[in-house]
Every structure is written in C-alpha cells, then in structure tokens.
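Re-running the complex after MR caught last week's input typo. The corrected sequence lines follow. Everything else is unchanged.
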Amino acid sequence: MGVDGIPVTKHETGLITTRLEEVIRWGRKNSLWPLPFGTACCAIEFMSVVSSVFDISRFGAELVRFSPRQSDLMIVAGTINYKLGPVLKRIYDQMCEPKYVISMGACACSGGFYDNYATIQGIDQIIPVDVFIPGCPPRPDAILNAVVKLQEKIDTEPQMGPRQPERERGKTR
Amino acid sequence: MVERVTQQFGGAVEGVDRPYGDVVLTVGRKAIRDVLSHLKEQGFDLLLDIAGVDGLHLGRRERYEVVYNLYSLGDDLRLRVKVFVPENDMNLPTVSDLWESANWAEREAYDMFGVVFEGHPNLVRILCHREFVGHALRKDYPIMKGQWATGTSDLKPDLERE
Amino acid sequence: MLTGPENMDPKQPDSAGPPRDEPPVAAEVDLADETSLDDLDTEPMYINIGPIHPATHGTFRVFCKLDGERIEKAAVEVGYLHRGFEKTAETKNFTLVIPYTDRLNYCSGLVNNVGYCKAVERMLGVTITPRTEIIRVIICEIQRIMDHLICVGANLVDIGALTNFWYFFNAREKLNDVLEALTGARLTYSYIRIGGLAWDLPKGFEENVRAALKTVPKAIRDVEGLVKKNRIFIDRTRDIGVMSARDAVSYGFTGPCLRASGVNHDLRKKKPYYHYDEFEFDVVLGERGDVYDRMFVRIEEMKQSLRIVEQALKVLPGGPINIDDKNVVLPDKGKVHSSMEELINHFKLIIEGIEVPAGEIYDAIEAPNGELGFYIISDGSGKPYRIKVRPPCFYLMNGLKKLIEGHMVADFVAILPGLNIIAGELDR
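Corrected-run output:
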C-alpha cells in the first residue's frame, strides 16, 4: 500500500513506516527548484509555464531560483552558442548534487535549424542531459510533460549515493 | 543635394545609383571621411547602419565594400554611401567620432569581415567570441566550422580603454 | 535588552536613548560634504553582471567598475546569442529565410516577417492586395501592443512591482490566443509570405480581436493606477538614465527610446506604408528621456495602437490575399493536385525558390523597438547574396554604457529593461 505513491507499511498504532530512500525520493521529485538558463525565445515560453494559465507549481517546481547554488533543476531554454558554452559548463558545475538538466527546445537539444559556425549542436556535447523537449518553441504543455517524465525518471534511480555512478566525473559522453 | 556633393568632391564621387528609388553614392577610399562629415553637416544626423559586403562572387573590381546607411531627420531623406575596400589593404578611417552609433557598427564590420577602422577606440570582436580565428561572414569561411571557446574573455582592458 | 540601565533620565549624557526633545545628533561625518570621507581607504570593485542574471532579459554581460554602489565605468559585451543568421540566410532561398526572421525579435515575431517580406516585395516590384495590407497593419499593431506589454511588465518587475507584470501578461495571453487561432503557433508565427499571407483569416477573427483587445485598456488602467503617481516609482525612474535628444540621435536610437527623448520620428508618419497615412493616430513624445518617459511612451503607444486596430478593422476590405503572380506565390492547393501546370509551378517554386532580380535594397519598418531595416543584396539566383539586418536593439545597447555610468547598480536594473533589449535581435 502507498501514501502519495510511496510504498509504506501502516501499523495499527497509527504509525507509518517506510524506507528512508523512498522519503528522499518523494521529497526530491516533488520539489524541483528550476534554474531557467534562458537565452532565447524558449525563455518566453518558460515564462508562460510559470504563469497561472499553465502553472508549473502544480508539480512542485514553483520556486524559480536564478542562483545555481540554490536550485537543482537546470532548464536550458534557448540556443547555446560557442561563446556561451563555457558559461553553461561553469554554472552546471556550480550546482550541487543531485542535479538534473532539461534541454528545452530544438536549439538546446541539437542546435535547431542553426547549423552553422556559431551554434553548439546540442548541449549534451558539454553537459549530461536528462530530458529533451523537442519543439520550436515547445508548447507549455510539453514542458509540463517533461517535468512529469523527469519525476518518473527519479522514481527509477537510487537516491542514496552519487547520482550517475556509471558516468565518471568530468566525462560527458 | 546629390549634385551639391558631386560638385564639392568631384573626382572622389565615383558613381550615383538609384536602385528601387533609393539614392546610393559610391565614394573613393581616400575621401570617404570628408564626404561623410560633409554629409553630417548637411543634416544627415542619423547613421542607421554600417554594413560590410563580401563581393567575391559578384565580380566587382574590389572584393569588399562597406555601406553607410544615413538618414536626415530634418528633411526625411535616406542616403547610402558605399566605399570599396580591396582585399590586400583593408583599412578605412573611422567615423565613430562623428556618430556614436558607428562605434559598435564598425566593430561588427571588423568582426565579420576584417575591415580595420583606423582611430576606433576599441576595435575588438563583438559578436563572435574573442578566441575566434577568421572572419565569419567572408564567403570563403566554411559555414559549418565552429570554434570552441575555452572561457569568457577578460573585460578589464576594455574598461580602461574606453 | 530586558532591563534598562538605572539611569533613565533623558537629559543625562549617559542615558540609554536619545534625548526625547531633540532629534538624534548625527556623527561627525556630514553626508552632504563629500570630502569628509576622503581619508578613508577605498578600492574600486569590479563586478560582472550577466550573461545569466535575473535582471538581464536575454544574455549579455556588463562588466562594471564600482566605486561603492556607483558605477564608475562599464563595458558591455554582447554576442552570447549570435546564431549566424546572416550567414545561414545566404544558403537558403528567400522563402526559407522567413522562419529565421521570426526569431529575431521573438516578442513580436510577425513584425520581423512583415519587414522582410516588404523588402523582398519591393525588390520584386509587386504590390500586395489591399486586404493583405490592412491585415498586415492589424497584425503589426497587435504585435506592437504585445511587445510593449512584455517590455513595460518586465521593467516594472525589475523595479519591484510584480503584480503589474501579471496584469500585462494576462492581456498578452489573451492576444496570443487570437494569434494562435490565426497562425497555429504561439511565439514564432511565420505567417507572412512573400506576396501575401500563408492563409486567410479564420471565421470570427474580428470578434475575437475586439474581445481580446478589451482586456488591454483595463490592464493599462490597473497598472497606471498602481504606478503613475506612486512616490517610490517616481523616485526610482525620474531623471534616471537620461539621454538628451542630440545624444540619442548620435547613438542611432530609433523608436520609443528616441521619442522619449523628444525627437519626433516615427516611420509610420514620415515614410508611411500600408495606408498608415490614412489612419488617425498620434506620435507620443517624451520630454526628458529618462526611464519614466520611456515607460510611459510605450504605454501611450499601446493606446494609440488600439485606435489604429479599431480603424483598420472597420476598413478591412474583402478580396484575395495573395497577388496573382505565379512566379511569386504558390498556386491553390486544389489545383496543384489536379492540374499539371500548377503542379510544375508549385514544384519549381518550392525547389528553386522565388527568382528575385539582381540588385540591392534597403527597406525599413517601424517595429515596436525602433527602425528594423533589411539591407538585401541579390545576385539573381534564388538565394539572397547578403542580408544585413539593422537591429534597433544593437544601437540601444551601444548607448547603454552612457546611460548607466554615474548611476548606482539598482538604477542599472531600472534602466536596462526600459530599452527592451531582445537578445535575438541584438546578436542575430
């Protein structure tokens, strides 16, 4: 049986027991604090998601924090070019574990239709990405879908210990 | 108005075109600054844009051209002034002391084409990163060739220079 | 402190608080006299604002040398969103460049489309149909309202007035719904084509526009009521970031920022296009060129745009939307599937593109941010040889250095959004 999706054991005394990992998982996935690394048009769509019509705070990701020290979900919204690449890597490195990255929009996923000398062809060349959202710009519903997918991904991962044990630090691909 | 300029500068004005109703003056490199400052006194107080063009496939006599886009607020007139720049000597005098908008417009022409403006206070790259080698909008620069940057540039020298 | 000292007599020199009759005596430092602190050891501090910062709308970097809280010198760096639009456009044919122009000023994407198509149409020498002209006017003015809503909303958020942003954003969402029903997209519309439009207006468009536009005056009234006579707002925006008329012209300012400095220059009145000279509207001018003026010029321009849309909706003619030229406009889809000639025409236009004659042109329109110009050189093949965009934000950003030097960091946050810097247009 579960409470809020967490497997728990209920006792006659009224107490509920569960595993520590489940509680940590529940806390982490339902309170993702986004850092909108917004550069271009997708940042405007992100503003619509935060507004009351589409409302990302239903999924817990309401507190938008612009400091990497205070957030755990980085949403890269917009084109990243070679000039901004070192900045992106540095801000990603400044975030504390566990950290998740959503790549929003065609430009962040693969360079979009800017296949030229100035644009990085996908941010997964420099940082590891968890969820990719296609679209140019993706509808706010698609962004909400991505947050839900990320929550499902967190369901499958072990929460105690470093996040990506099979990927060594410093290596991306 | 065009006749006055041609009279004053005579040999320096190499051509007058009127494509699609606009007026375009072609001026020689030596006289470009004098012509532009004369035009500024005549009322062309708004320098809208400085565009560089790489005419490699257009078959003109020099490879590059720089186009100054002027507007006169008093008379509502538009004027374009072109100057041809050869490949082996890409220097032009700056006009950033006449119009402040030329400051960044010339930096962009330098960044994209390599045209050097003598006398510019801070002629460094503005759109591409500072470690970029080459000039991006030249026709012989391959479009797919990206260049990684290893860090952000130090802006203290810019601060002190300007 | 739970218990006071024994001696609570206010007139005694070692009493706990200040004497009750006289106001507190200041220390020896006289704040009005700036030399009294000169013997203190100070060093300038260098801080970096951006490229990712909550107050910078878009990515650009301002490196400041601070003397206390005051910005002594600043160096502005842009190019963090340089996407190579101009080089990419040289590899596509003229119609395929239209989606790229959408992403220039993405808060008002259709205006960029109109500017580009207007330049190419002038190069081709075609005149679009009367219905398309009025539809383009309606769309441009709606986009002007949407752009100003975001700009003023963001400006107010950065000063600290968050509620106004939501009032304006709500109105913008209603207008965006109308445009979504028209074009199918929420932000990057790509609805304008060379020679006309992609498709005609849907049923009920005019009623939807009128209903959506009703929310705008209410939002403006709410915001003006909160902000216009607010003491704190006036203190933060009056005489901050002043640009005189002469300097504004020298820096290449156009649009609301130039009009806020008092210069009467609006391309819709000076070089009218698409019947703008037949519509009645006023050009809004400011007096001092400070942050307050820029904001209220934009708010008044929104009111003028409402007037233009009302008049345009009244005179909207019927008729075709695309010109009758088979070298420019795709043929009707029904005929493409049934008749050989239209099929070949469609094929040629898609594969080879529109044949624009060789030559060069510069054409500009009054975008919400200023004069958006396109300088296009064609060499006779189906691809543009060179497209140079004259972005209004680039020249506004050039003037930023002058605007912020001498002000405090908090004033920088108030000045910057008022210029409406959209990074997509700034860096192309």
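None of the earlier attempt is carried over here. The longest strand of chain C covers residues 359-367. The radius of gyration of chain C is 27 Å.
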